Amino acid sequence: MKLKIAVLSGDGIGPEVTKQAVSVLKVIGEVYHHHFEFEEALVGAIAIDKTNNPLPDATLELCKNSDAVLFGAIGDPKYDNNPDAKVRPEQGLLKLRKELGLFANIRPIKAFESLLEKSPLKTSIIEGTDMVIYRELTGGIYFGEKKVSDDGATASDLCEYSQFEIERIAHLAFKAAQTRNKRVTLVDKANVLETSRLWRRVVTQLAKEYPDVALDFLFVDNAAMQMILNPKQFDVILTENMFGDIISDEGSVIGGSIGLLASASVGNDNALFEPIHGSYPQAKGKNIANPIAAILCAAMLLEHFGLKEEAKAIEKAVEQSLENNIVTPDLNSVRNFGTDYVGSAIANFIL
Amino acid sequence: MKLKIAVLSGDGIGPEVTKQAVSVLKVIGEVYHHHFEFEEALVGAIAIDKTNNPLPDATLELCKNSDAVLFGAIGDPKYDNNPDAKVRPEQGLLKLRKELGLFANIRPIKAFESLLEKSPLKTSIIEGTDMVIYRELTGGIYFGEKKVSDDGATASDLCEYSQFEIERIAHLAFKAAQTRNKRVTLVDKANVLETSRLWRRVVTQLAKEYPDVALDFLFVDNAAMQMILNPKQFDVILTENMFGDIISDEGSVIGGSIGLLASASVGNDNALFEPIHGSYPQAKGKNIANPIAAILCAAMLLEHFGLKEEAKAIEKAVEQSLENNIVTPDLNSVRNFGTDYVGSAIANFIL
Ligand SMILES: CC(C)[C@H](C(=O)O)[C@@H](O)C(=O)O
Ligand SMILES: CC(C)[C@H](C(=O)O)[C@@H](O)C(=O)O
């Protein structure tokens, strides 16, 4: 297979971990005889520093002309505590999602056997957890009209949804459920929000096309509890943008290390793969960041293009490194290795 | 002291647990020579059934003419899965909050020593947790304009905030921090939402009036993780309505039983005290619901009116019942007691 992959490594630890993901993909290309072409471009705070634009036109162009985007991380503390900043790194990511039409963010959450004791949750609670969250990514309060009054004393954000925005991601969620445990849980706040009631109506209707999948509903406040009380109960969670942001990050604590979690953001014509850990600026350049999430993004990318065997090979190599304790400091404070060492070890396990 | 208390026990297990809270308050009245006057009124699904209105005028009138409201729970499954229902129990609670001007919801979260092993989190993670969440309760997306298009294919909810709405609750949060560990954490999504940026500006400015209190910021997605990874780090959390709904319910899992958690909703002229467990319809009428949250609401009520010694007496009685294992089935599946038995036991420990 021939794939053109845009590499947007971004800020903080993004470049270090993305580099390892690219190396692993190169090894896969060699071993399985695929032709992967990589091209790098700027995004985020580093793009602002160099071009005053968190998503330069050249970057967007490259992404549109690529089959997939391998994304690192964006964000820099110098922008976070400045509510008056006019340009923010996050705008780059949000615009990219919108322009590429990446309407579904997919986050698998699993408890890795070898890491159970790392979790803040009891082993009995998390053992066997295997869910996937489908978060709507290009609608809702993220992209609705924003206003500030002239005197700066009032502000508003509009949360809007249309039937077609709900349907296209709901179809993905139900199709995923068909290949899994055949349950979709819609997380919303239908007792308060009109948009949530629209989600319930649309999803209830659409569920009839999937008679083999059970649909249930959970208010987001209750979901935030159930996620911790009994994460095993979930198969596929479907939810809107803002709730998905919160619930999926909450879910990321289950496995014991956020450094292991990958996500895919998919649309009709493009797909972007991103570790969920973010830019983690405190670790930047120290060669301590965990490259596994980025490497598992590479696996999700291959899976997305139907390269199942190749994806499995990466997952197996990751498990081998975990089992052999070839891990970064976040997973073992006593005996640990650098980002590059762990990345190479995983690449070598594939060979 | 003379206090007129409106008793709105509502739906599900509300009546059973509120009854125990009233009994405990009566005992406190006798022992400490206060005159507490109780009057009951309808709210929620039961009010809809009887009057077609989740908050009848007579109920609102009574609350306005009372010093405080002791609230049970509202909600009935027959309304939850009907997105087309025109009248919903929740509207009663939301209208009550708005009409009484209860702009601050206050939820203490503590790990009870005798219940540490009940938590889904490891003891090492939760031991010593002692935070309080200040959630804005009469603004934001809960009360902004709601729209549905004529064809029902699009819907919207508006999230709005004004400076004064933020200031009045922020003052309460900073004052609380002054009597505690002197830290306020503002939870928001300032990298995406205009309203969150308003919160940051207003709270940053107001913090200058409290030089003895440290202020920090956390994005809500990160907060949802930190709440589980390291709940001990928090002292006072300040946040807007929707984020507060999610984060405070998430936080309720820390202590191991949601049946223990009370909340106060306060405004300038009134205050309402409500267990956070909700109506729990499956347990209704079975005499198995935990009355402790409702009883601790009574303690918060007394504390609110400056009756510290009386509040402490209730808390001590609750601890005694826990230590003596006089608890409902949620806390001990082997040896347990009924709602009324546990309530009486706690009342007796006060005598
Ligand atoms: C960086 C931020 C805008 C983004 C979001 O909120 O969507 C991030 O938290 C994520 O989940 O990818
Ligand atoms: C019942 C519901 C409207 C309410 C809310 O969302 O505020 C409840 O969840 C709460 O937190 O008191």
UniProtKB/TrEMBL annotation, chains A, B:
Binding annotation for Mg(2+): D221, D245, D249
The UniProt record lists the keyword Repressor: no
Subcellular location: Cytoplasm
Record note on cofactor: Binds 1 Mg(2+) or Mn(2+) ion per subunit.
EC number(s) recorded for this UniProt protein: 1.1.1.85
Keywords from the named record: Amino-acid biosynthesis, Branched-chain amino acid biosynthesis, Cytoplasm, Leucine biosynthesis, Magnesium, Manganese, Metal-binding, NAD, Oxidoreductase
Reaction(s) catalysed (UniProt annotation): (2R,3S)-3-isopropylmalate + NAD(+) = 4-methyl-2-oxopentanoate + CO2 + NADH
Pfam family, one: Iso_dh
Pathway per the UniProt entry: Amino-acid biosynthesis; L-leucine biosynthesis; L-leucine from 3-methyl-2-oxobutanoate: step 3/4
Binding site for substrate: R97, R107, R135, D221
InterPro entries cross-referenced by the UniProt entry: IsoCit/isopropylmalate_DH_CS (IPR019818), IsoPropMal-DH-like_dom (IPR024084), Isopropylmalate_DH (IPR004429)
GO MF annotation list: 3-isopropylmalate dehydrogenase activity
Principal localisation: cytoplasm
Superkingdom of this protein's organism: Bacteria
Function of the molecule: Catalyzes the oxidation of 3-carboxy-2-hydroxy-4-methylpentanoate (3-isopropylmalate) to 3-carboxy-4-methyl-2-oxopentanoate. The product decarboxylates to 4-methyl-2 oxopentanoate.
Subunit architecture: Homodimer.
HAMAP family hit by this protein: LeuB_type1
NCBIfam families according to UniProt: leuB
Protein name: 3-isopropylmalate dehydrogenase
High-level lineage: Bacteria, Pseudomonadati, Bacteroidota, Flavobacteriia, Flavobacteriales
Gene: leuB
